[in-house]
Amino acid sequence: MKVRGIRGAITVSANEEQSILDATLEVLRAIVEENQVDPEEICSLFITVTQDLDATFPARAIRQMPGWELVPLMCSVEIPVKGGLEKCIRLMVLVNTEAAQAEIRHVYLGDARKLRPDLSASR
Q: CDD domains from the entry (predicted)?
Protein backbone atom coordinates (compact mmCIF):
# COMPACT_ATOMS: atom_id res chain seq x y z
CA MET A 1 0.00 0.00 0.00
CA LYS A 2 1.00 3.55 -0.67
CA VAL A 3 -0.11 6.82 0.87
CA ARG A 4 -1.74 9.09 -1.70
CA GLY A 5 -3.06 12.61 -1.36
CA ILE A 6 -6.50 13.39 -2.70
CA ARG A 7 -7.21 17.08 -3.22
CA GLY A 8 -10.56 18.77 -3.09
CA ALA A 9 -11.88 22.30 -2.92
CA ILE A 10 -15.17 24.13 -2.87
CA THR A 11 -16.34 27.70 -2.50
CA VAL A 12 -19.18 29.13 -0.43
CA SER A 13 -21.22 32.24 -1.11
CA ALA A 14 -21.13 33.57 2.45
CA ASN A 15 -19.13 33.33 5.66
CA GLU A 16 -21.91 31.48 7.49
CA GLU A 17 -21.57 28.50 9.77
CA GLN A 18 -24.06 26.25 7.99
CA SER A 19 -22.72 27.13 4.54
CA ILE A 20 -19.19 26.17 5.60
CA LEU A 21 -20.32 22.90 7.21
CA ASP A 22 -22.50 21.92 4.25
CA ALA A 23 -19.81 22.72 1.68
CA THR A 24 -17.19 20.77 3.63
CA LEU A 25 -19.42 17.70 3.62
CA GLU A 26 -20.26 18.14 -0.06
CA VAL A 27 -16.65 18.14 -1.22
CA LEU A 28 -15.61 15.36 1.17
CA ARG A 29 -18.50 13.11 0.08
CA ALA A 30 -17.56 13.71 -3.56
CA ILE A 31 -13.94 12.75 -2.84
CA VAL A 32 -15.06 9.60 -1.02
CA GLU A 33 -17.45 8.63 -3.81
CA GLU A 34 -15.01 9.32 -6.65
CA ASN A 35 -12.22 7.34 -4.98
CA GLN A 36 -14.19 4.72 -3.03
CA VAL A 37 -12.45 5.71 0.19
CA ASP A 38 -13.27 4.11 3.54
CA PRO A 39 -12.52 6.17 6.69
CA GLU A 40 -10.41 3.25 7.98
CA GLU A 41 -8.02 3.81 5.05
CA ILE A 42 -7.48 7.50 5.82
CA CYS A 43 -4.21 8.53 7.47
CA SER A 44 -5.34 12.11 8.05
CA LEU A 45 -7.32 14.95 6.56
CA PHE A 46 -5.98 18.49 6.33
CA ILE A 47 -8.43 21.34 5.78
CA THR A 48 -7.66 24.94 4.92
CA VAL A 49 -9.95 27.92 4.56
CA THR A 50 -9.33 31.35 3.16
CA GLN A 51 -9.07 34.13 5.73
CA ASP A 52 -12.57 35.37 4.94
CA LEU A 53 -14.11 32.17 6.36
CA ASP A 54 -14.12 32.30 10.15
CA ALA A 55 -17.70 31.44 11.13
CA THR A 56 -16.80 27.87 12.17
CA PHE A 57 -14.26 25.08 11.95
CA PRO A 58 -14.99 22.93 8.87
CA ALA A 59 -13.76 19.85 10.75
CA ARG A 60 -16.88 20.05 12.94
CA ALA A 61 -18.98 18.68 10.09
CA ILE A 62 -16.65 15.75 9.47
CA ARG A 63 -16.34 14.80 13.15
CA GLN A 64 -20.11 14.22 13.27
CA MET A 65 -20.12 11.74 10.38
CA PRO A 66 -20.51 8.09 11.47
CA GLY A 67 -17.19 6.25 11.13
CA TRP A 68 -15.14 9.45 10.94
CA GLU A 69 -14.74 10.06 14.67
CA LEU A 70 -11.18 8.69 14.79
CA VAL A 71 -9.86 10.19 11.56
CA PRO A 72 -7.18 12.78 12.44
CA LEU A 73 -8.35 16.21 11.24
CA MET A 74 -6.50 19.53 11.15
CA CYS A 75 -7.78 22.96 10.14
CA SER A 76 -5.62 25.88 9.07
CA VAL A 77 -5.82 29.18 7.22
CA GLU A 78 -4.77 29.27 3.57
CA ILE A 79 -1.89 31.55 2.60
CA PRO A 80 -3.43 34.97 1.78
CA VAL A 81 -2.24 35.54 -1.78
CA LYS A 82 -3.40 38.79 -3.43
CA GLY A 83 -5.98 38.01 -6.10
CA GLY A 84 -6.47 34.46 -4.79
CA LEU A 85 -9.81 32.70 -4.77
CA GLU A 86 -12.04 33.90 -1.93
CA LYS A 87 -14.38 31.93 0.38
CA CYS A 88 -12.65 28.67 -0.44
CA ILE A 89 -12.37 25.46 1.57
CA ARG A 90 -9.60 23.06 0.53
CA LEU A 91 -9.12 19.45 1.62
CA MET A 92 -6.11 17.15 1.42
CA VAL A 93 -7.10 13.60 2.25
CA LEU A 94 -4.11 11.32 2.87
CA VAL A 95 -5.22 7.76 2.23
CA ASN A 96 -3.66 4.29 2.22
CA THR A 97 -4.45 2.81 -1.18
CA GLU A 98 -3.33 0.48 -3.93
CA ALA A 99 -4.42 3.05 -6.52
CA ALA A 100 -1.79 4.51 -8.81
CA GLN A 101 -1.28 8.27 -8.74
CA ALA A 102 -3.01 8.58 -12.13
CA GLU A 103 -6.08 6.78 -10.75
CA ILE A 104 -6.70 9.31 -7.99
CA ARG A 105 -9.69 11.56 -8.69
CA HIS A 106 -9.37 15.05 -7.27
CA VAL A 107 -12.57 17.05 -6.78
CA TYR A 108 -13.03 20.78 -7.38
CA LEU A 109 -16.54 22.20 -7.02
CA GLY A 110 -18.11 25.62 -7.50
CA ASP A 111 -15.70 28.45 -8.25
CA ALA A 112 -12.89 26.23 -6.95
CA ARG A 113 -12.84 24.64 -10.41
CA LYS A 114 -10.72 27.67 -11.36
CA LEU A 115 -7.92 26.36 -9.14
CA ARG A 116 -7.33 23.26 -11.26
CA PRO A 117 -9.29 23.38 -14.51
CA ASP A 118 -7.18 20.49 -15.78
CA LEU A 119 -8.62 18.26 -13.04
CA SER A 120 -12.13 19.76 -13.01
CA ALA A 121 -13.12 19.31 -16.66
CA SER A 122 -14.76 15.91 -16.15
CA ARG A 123 -17.05 17.04 -13.27
A: AroH
